[in-house]
Amino acid sequence: MFDAHDITLTVNGKPVRASVDARMNLADFLRKDLKLTGTHVGCEHGVCGACTVLVDGASVRSCLMLAVQADGRSIETIEGVAGAGELHPIQAALARHHGLQCGYCTPGVIMTLRELDHDRAGGTLSEDDIRAALSGNLCRCTGYQGMVDAALELFGPAAAP
Amino acid sequence: MTELPKTQADPHLRWIGRNAPRVEDDVLLRGGATFLDDIAMPEALEATFVRAPVAHGLIRGMRLEAARALPGVNAVLAFADLRAVLTTDRIPLALPAGGLRFDVDPPCLAIGEVCYVGEPVVLIVANSRRIAEDAAALVELDIEPLPAVVDPVAGLEPGSPKARLDTPDNLVARTKVDYGDIAAAFEGPAHLVRETFRLNKGGGHPMEPRGVLARYDALEDRLTIWDSTQMPHRAKAMLVASLGLSEHQVRVVTPDVGGGFGTKAVFHPEELAIPAAAMLLQRPIKWVEDRFESFTASIGERDQVWTVEAAFETDGRLRGIRGHLRYDHGAATPYGIALPFNAATNLIGPYVLPAYRMDIDLCLTNKTPAAPTRGAGRPQGTFVMERLLDRAAAGLNIARDEIRRRNMIVPAQMPYTIPVKQRDGSMMVYDSGDYPQCQSKALDVAGWQDFPERQAKARAEGHYIGLGLANYVEATGRGPFESVGISIGPSGKVVVSSGATAQGQGVKTMLAQVVADVLGLEPASIHVVVGDTSATASGLGAYASRQAVTAGNAAFAAATMLVDKARKAAAELLEAAEADVEIHNGMLQVKGVPGHGRSLQQIARALAGTPGFALPGNLPPGLSAASDFMTSGLSYTNGCHLAEVEVDPETGGVKLNRYVVVHDCGRMINPMMVEGQILGGVVHGIGMTLFEWMRYDAEGQPLTVTFADYLLPTSDVVPRVEIYHLESPTPLNPLGVKGAAESGTIGAPSAIVSGIEDALRHLNVRIDTLPLTPPQLRRLVRAGART
Questions:
Q1: Cβ pair B207, B61 in contact under 8 A
Q2: Which 181-210 residues of chain B touch chain A by CB within 8 A?
Q3: Is the complex ipTM higher than 0.90?
Q4: What is the model's pLDDT at position A91?
Q5: CATH code of the domain made up of B414-477+634-787
């Protein structure tokens, strides 16, 4: 049964109007309807963090939010971080520090670090702060060290103000 | 780090040994990669499976009508429906193994009997996954429950129920490791240690679950399968055999794959059911595993129960070890008996063990079939040896590092042969390595000598800290071969294709670095194709920490052959002696005459041929070369791990304060990527020790089927891992490389548990179970405090 709802939202700065099934979650809406497949689905239980996107600037598990709940909101996904241009400093730092291997969890990690960068408001973060912020993103490849080091380079005591 | 050893490679190495940026990263960082579920094929139908809800039972009936009647459902298929396009009932998965008493090859959908929760029974194909899942809820299975076997010890007792009705009993395999005079080792005065260990290891749990997309093209009579597998050529062989097709009709392609860790090495029933349905319905079909399915339908490791006895001289030297290993093999034999055999043989580690006998019994149980995940049984075998050494050290009042030193194989003994026959028929030979130096360096870095002082001080302040150590080896680079082809066409593009596969290790970067060095190019300019059976006629893929060894050396050989041919052609075109032609930045030029040369592209054009004209130097056409690197033996990586822990005796919590690894995998092609492998492995080992536990109840119902119940290590509980390298190049391949992908897991459980026992030494806490959860540790602390 298709229970259609019309929604209007902003995705990566562009206005989007769509008719969505009431039970469709935001992750599936982004991936299937908008073809933004950079948001990955890892568990659909809200635990792994792979599907993390920003909703009005706050990190959200897109598998736990319904598409209809995104009505009137502004969504940022991995595709909006750098587009086709130069890599965002967070992305470039992850590559430098080998903070990704298979890359499946990486978009979620980047969105978490985007939020962390915003929330720190120019302040300096410790390794413990960064590890706490990343603790909601599961990664099986890297042991987290490369992504922690990438964030330390950008947000840590040695980072340029 | 020791000086980079000289190998047969060209001495002016620009890329091998350097931290080249990964060619994989850019697209992954932008979210532009194509994982299986990202493949755009709007015409594809979507599938889901109805799976066994009980661990063991007989299928008395199925009511499929309501599901079939749901709008948007294309097909609801049971085994009998798929059988029309299958050549056999069972998937011919069996690997040859001497100890197997009978093969238990699984069917692609259950036939009459279900043997584990999660076994696929009915396949539903619909216009969308949502509709398929709605239909699945309408399927009624009438299953008569049968007693379930859940314990590998009880399951081998006389009178135990059978895990499958189609087998004579639950003892699916019996094998042993046996050399030396074991009876003599236990005669006369000796220090004896007797222990029983129960060691659980869970799944690989890649962040991307498994998935399959199959499209049958009736016009070409050809089946293409996109499969998130580590072994596409093996998948192709299974499909060719099971569907009765010829090799040219089946192509298996791996898209970007989000981690493997063994989970995606084994061919699973869904990898046949989906292509079979695609042929039957003549429609493309996609299935992507959800996380519940990955806990219940993907292979994993299970319980090992070890009863062991070790005899030591009073100076701490090992005389012999004997015992019995009983292994929970799950409900089928998808991958032979490699796993417990690895466990038993890896027990030996870097030590002189004069006599050894381990009897191995594999018990069928009503759990998801067991097969190797990262480490493949080795962490458990190493755990047993390292615990025995710690026990003997305590009993004989010898320091833990000293008892290890007294037993270690020394470099002068290399190559060191252990009279154990492996599955390729060869003896176990350690090729190279300096085990005493490895331990000594790790002890120095971790501050072993000063630790007792720090420990006493911390104790006085109410902190229970301990320092644990563990040594291990890993057989890497398993054969028999891997293939690499390199071709440069008139476009000038360098295309490297290989039977190797990539799940995040950086295989493309590794191959590009090797080829770049030989051709004098930048790695980023080289296009690498892996995981496509149409790009490489033969190949094996990712297992046993093997691809840098096998594919890396194949790439080196192929690139060298290609340059030789280019040099011959250039000599002809430049009217120079072949010996005077050198390759520099992709140009073949006459030595001492820069600018007088031909590019690889120009040579490729010349060798592509012109109608009616001779090829330069009458060389065979085409600028390409291929090599199958065939291994002459396993190359042994080794390492020493030091774990500094702090135990909270009130909560049973364990904090890892410091973690040091000294690692030796020979020549490193890309040290950054090697360290990435070690890091991931160590953290997987930490998970196995303290967090990950795949639990079942007495009826065989899985209890841990989300990441909220089955805990993976998170960034806030893992320590910074400090990695140091020795580089003992193996003599077994021209690049001198050994594998590194699994090694990190192997030492972690032993080192951490040694550290915990050290922190609680005053309570005489002995740990014999993995994982070690806080409630268990608290019980041990309380029991210790009472004595």
A1: no
A2: 204-209
A3: yes
A4: 98
A5: 3.30.365.10
